[in-house]
User: Fold this.
Amino acid sequence: MSILAVIFGILSGCFLAVLVGIIGSHRRIGFGWAFLISLIFTPLVGLIVALLTDPLPGGGQRWGCVGTVVAILGLLFFAAFLLLALTGGAMLLAL
Assistant:
């Protein structure tokens, strides 16, 4: 596996963990714990834990469009990682 694929994997995992943290910030678990659980385990486990906690009272939207931007960037990095992992880096050589 190339070093570039590893970097894309780490970046996509971090972006997804930040997204789970943003979801957790609207719940009792908070950003920090949701982010930490997502980094230690996987973002999927962190998302499940964050969604199982109770929402904050009066859960108004505090982040504006930041969550959407982070989600889109996370999905783009994840798609790039999958593309690199499945093609073995051949897409980079084609560019």
Notes: The chain has a mean pLDDT of 80. Residues 47 and 95 are 35 Å apart (CA to CA). The chain has one domain: 3-94.
